[in-house]
Amino acid sequence: EREPLGPVVQRSGARTKFTHQFRGAPDGDYALVLFHTSFERKPEGQETVTLEHERDGKWRVIGYTIQ
User: pTM of the prediction?
Assistant: First the structure.
C-alpha cells in the first residue's frame, strides 16, 4: 500500500523486462516495467508495474508492487 509512504516526490523509468513466463500465471507475453521512485517517507523505492499482452492485442496492467 502506498499511503504510508506519502506522495511521490520523483519517479524515473529504470527498465522494462519482457518475458513469456511469470510466476503464478500461465505462459504468455508479459512486461515488467520498473521505476526508481522517491516517496516522501521512503526516499529510495522501486515500483514494478506488470502488464499482460492479451488476445485482443492490448497490454493491460495485472499487477503493481513497491519495494
Answer: 0.84
